[in-house]
């Protein structure tokens, strides 16, 4: 049975951030995720999780200067010390909030920049991240992202992400399979889920969903999510499925797609 986590960066924007936890729990969610927690004290977020009986599924490590357009620093040459400080901060939050998945964003690469150098830095930083996270039982996940939404993002394809995980060789480094991004870049989601879910190394550590192409609720667009949910179940995935979509209107009004799964649960 699929288990869904509300993404509080995209959903429930009609509420202040710390009030979104209660709104998600009221609608039946048992877990949440979001992009970044660092504007808030970990203790404040933890109290909202506990008050509402919610599990923290995932968040992202600090991405560099997000407001200036940066989208991660893990593959950026010359930013290695900053990456290590960002990782330390992220792991402090995972220790407080209890999530066992931490997303590390790769970053942007310009057409004239050396891709092999970026890849070398990326692999080394991922090795360091996985090693630092392992004693705490945290799995580092990397996410291929489409270049329509984030032009120049370093990592775009599922097979590339799996190859990077294989090369690093850490048992707690896996791929974050975002159905929305994968459909835009590659399509053929069912085949890729079957191929990668049971890989002896790497594999899929987290799944996210959204309708394609508008990134609204998963009950509209070109993907057949009921089929994909059944497939994911049949493949033995027991992790959370993050609902990383932008509601068409009020978040609660668009949750008709979720109700059958809550009733079954």
Discrete helix count:
9
How much is the radius of gyration in Å? 17 Å
Q: Any idea what the shape is?
A: globular
CATH topology call: TIM Barrel
Strand order of the largest sheet: 1-2-3-4-5-6-7-8
Tell me the major beta sheet. 8 strands, parallel, barrel
Give the CATH class.
Alpha Beta
Helicity level, as a percent range?
25-40%
CATH superfamily: Divalent-metal-dependent TIM barrel enzymes
Low-confidence stretches: none
Number of strands: 8
Question: Which architecture would the CATH scheme give at its second level?
Answer: Alpha-Beta Barrel
Indicate how many domains the architecture comprises.
1
Write structural notes for this entry.
The chain has 265 residues and is α/β, with parallel strands linked by helices. The chain has a single domain (3-264), classed as TIM Barrel. 37% of the residues lie in helices and 14% in strands. It contains 9 helices and 8 strands. The protein has helices at 20-26, 42-51, 80-97, 115-133, 158-168, 179-185, 189-197, 225-234, 259-264, and strands at 3-7, 31-33, 55-60, 101-103, 139-142, 173-178, 204-209, 240-243. An 8-stranded parallel barrel has the order 1-2-3-4-5-6-7-8, surrounded by 6 helices. Helix 5 (158-168) links the parallel strand 5 and strand 6. Helix 3 runs parallel beside helix 4. The longest helix is centred in the middle third of the chain and has 19 residues, at 115-133. The radius of gyration is 17 Å and the shape is globular. The N and C termini lie close together (7 Å). The mean pLDDT is 97.
């Amino acid at each position: 049975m699929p288990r869904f986590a509300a993404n509080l960066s995209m959903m429930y924007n009609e509420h202040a951030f710390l009030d979104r936890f209660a709104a998600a729990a009221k609608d039946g969610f048992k877990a949440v995720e979001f992009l970044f927690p660092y504007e808030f004290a970990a203790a404040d977020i933890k109290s909202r999780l506990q008050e509402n009986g919610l599990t923290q599924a995932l968040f992202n490590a600090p991405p560099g200067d997000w407001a200036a357009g940066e989208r991660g620093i893990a593959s950026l040459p010359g930013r290695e010390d900053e990456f290590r400080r960002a990782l330390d901060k992220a792991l402090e939050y995972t220790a407080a909030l209890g999530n066992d998945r931490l997303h590390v964003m790769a970053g942007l690469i310009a057409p004239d920049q050396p891709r092999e150098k970026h890849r070398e830095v990326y692999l080394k930083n991922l090795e360091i991240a996985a090693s630092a996270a392992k004693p705490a039982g945290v799995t580092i996940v990397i996410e291929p992202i489409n270049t329509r939404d984030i032009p120049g993002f370093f990592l775009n394809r599922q097979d590339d992400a799996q190859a990077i995980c294989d090369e690093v060789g850490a048992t707690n480094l896996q791929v974050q399979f975002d159905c929305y991004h994968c459909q835009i870049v590659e399509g053929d989601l069912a085949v890729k889920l079957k191929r990668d879910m049971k890989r002896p190394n790497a594999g899929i550590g987290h799944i996210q969903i959204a309708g394609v192409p508008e990134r609204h609720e998963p009950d509209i667009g070109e993907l057949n999510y009921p089929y994909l949910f059944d497939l994911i179940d049949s493949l033995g995935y027991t992790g959370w499925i993050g609902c990383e979509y932008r509601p068409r209107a009020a978040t609660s009004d668009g949750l008709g797609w979720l109700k059958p799964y809550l009733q079954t649960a």
